[in-house]
Queue: 2 jobs
Job 1
Amino acid sequence: MIPAPFTLRRAATWQALPELLEDALPLGGGQSLMPLLALRLAEPTALVALRALPGFSDIAERDGALWIGAGVTHARIEDGIGPAPLRDWLSQVAAGIAYRPVRNLGTIGGSLALHDPAADWPVALLALGASAVLRQGDTRRVLPMAQFLTGAFATALQPGEVIEAVTIPIPAPGTRFGWCKLAPAPGAFADALAGVFRAPGAAPRIAVASPAGARLMPEAPPPDDPHLARLRAVAIRRAGA
Amino acid sequence: MTRLCVNGETHDVRCEDRDSLALVLRDALGLTATRIGCQHGSCGACNVLLEDVPVRGCLVPAALAEGQAVTTLEGLRDDAVMIRLRAAFTAHHALQCGYCTAGMLIAARDLILRGRAGSAAEVRAGLAGQLCRCTGYDGIVAAVLAAQ
């Protein structure tokens, strides 16, 4: 239960980061990575701590969206960030992740970068219409969540690139969001997850956890797929949207 | 050398980058209230305070705690909430073997300080990340409720 030996580096600037990452794994809050190292499921020779990067834990409202730095912890989101009602939706999702001592260090960016298919943020952010801001040195690109999440434990991140922030559009008045997590115990990884986002006058956007990672449900399930139609109906009902 | 600030005192310790804070607290500094259990964040026996909030001591490389205030159970001897919790744990027989107790106390103190210990259900949910292998949860929940 002791990790294999590794060297710890600290990234102080975005410009220096790609080179530091060449033979290393990025370390956010470490609440997923450190257990993987302790179990020796991964044996990197070096880790790069990201938390000192400028702006890594910033929260701001910009251009009609809430900017959440990748280093923002689940606990900070649980305690309330951004305008209502988005604040309450995000708080509900964050409060269901693991346990408070884990939420005090675990980050939204780390959860997203790992994309565990049973994790909460990928599903919730997909339903909320969020985007990932990816950064490599001075170069930024912004990907909608559906393009960023490419499969279980897989994302569109390129070597040397990390998540700088998540942006979530501020919802229009009257928008509703429902969140349903079924887990064997409080804080455990989910058996099932569904998020339903419903803007006034629009069809509901439904995201669910699947073995292939977070995915959007089709707007209208094909008529020959009664299982999907039922899953969709249950998601809407359980999420209370 | 890694410079750690633990319970208000500064220590220079020699450790590897892979060594967890919990390991260094026990082996290098002799602060053995912090217990090492599962070593992957599940059991909560190694809870310590980092900048006044509870974290898993096994999931923080000690070298990354440099420059941050670390508080172990030893450092909470005179803490008002901890004094009440210790008395309530004794009164309600909230420990058997005691291995989980340090982590349990640190998690319980945080629940009380955040106002999340209002009912038995709330305490149980709040302590879901703290495992007691003696399964003495009833006494622990009663003690936390009594300590508020």
Job 2
Amino acid sequence: MTSVAIVTGGGSGIGLAAAQYLSQTHRVICCGLDHIDEFPDDLEFRELDVTDENAVTACFSDISECSALVNCAGMIVQDRQEFEIQNFRKVIDVNLNAVHLVTNSLVDALAVAGGSVVNIASMYSVFGSPNTPAYSASKGGIVSLTRSHAVAFAGRGVRVNAVAPGWIDTRLASNAIHNEERRNRIMERLPMRRFGEPADVGSVIAFLVSEEARYITGAVLPVDGGYSIA
Amino acid sequence: MFNDLTGKAVLVTGASRGIGAAIANGFAEAGAHVAIHYNASREPAEKLAESINQSGGKAVTIGGDFSRSPEARKTVEEAATRLGGLDVLVNNAGAMVDRRDFVDIDDELLDAVNDLNIKSLVAASQAAVPHLEKSANGAIVNLGSIAGANGGGASVAHYAAAKGYVHTVTRSMAMALAGKGIRVNAIAPGVINTDFHAATPPEILNNLKSMIVMGRLGDAEDCVGSALFLSSRKASGYITGQVLHINGGQYMA
């Protein structure tokens, strides 16, 4: 039987890149609110609101074994709108609470397969963000949640790690990357002098869920061209 | 997963035994050409090279005493000459030298630990730069340690601090060498069951094991995938300046 990999937010960006790597070794199921028009035919897509408990349960009701879960669904609200409490709550719900919800709903299936989880942290897990406080708080929370799940599920043979992407050319980062002034400022500080591609993160996720990483759990690995050290 | 390492020239220092030997063998299995550096253990180094060469790989051995940094430079030059260049340097040579209570650590022990774990790592890396910058896949992987992050135990301050240096210099080197297209990262093993722990008292090992949520000590093979991963541009081309912890979930619980 082919092992199953589930990627939330797998319809675009980093999630889709991870799904494409994982499809070399897994049957991949992408879930999320939407997917790009060019979504590949060979990947399965299930429409899902990851914050909806009943929908999550229903979505995975047929999954008895899962060898990889990538919690990639995420959102950001621009233009300082995250200072509004309803937006703040919404971002925390999608970026943090839903990761706990989805992992919890799949942990039995992960244990059966000896599987592993990769969460998406961020450089904003560590930095303060002047304009997106909910996004950065949610990603700080992801680091703690990753470690807690790593400790909680190790006894069941489930590893849990996170990647912390820097400036990756996706729709979440497009505001910054396509604003010339911000783009130049970022580039000045970025040791590798290039923005990342979703595939740069996808390959790291594929490593972390593989047997090559079998003794790694609770780790948070930045994928940022050196931005966070500079 | 790391098929871009095929044909790459790789020097692994301190590769006659333990983690270094496993990493050297892992590179050979990925199709890389490896230089196996050894100090005291010539015989196991030659055995490893022989087994690699017999199974269709390519390996050479180079002796050198890394308690003296000029020998580290010489080892790198010899590796580059014999492999026809250098794409990857794995700075694995290192040791604790002795377990000693903090109040009893003297200059002699500090010098011995720092000469081996710090000065030779810096010297080998400097010597490698002119070769690595010619590669499209230039990468350095340093061996840090969980001790470098958490201070080790009560009797290993000298070693833990040297590994803390390795973590920090990894970040500094990453910034300094990014412009030359060289990525620099470290792996930080937890408690790995090799000769390194031959002299560790059993009660300390048992206590350490009880803190590892995966419920087992690591083995040398557990470190191989991460060293290959951080050396492979295809797999980790956007990662530099990072320390990847391989510890079965030790220090969180």
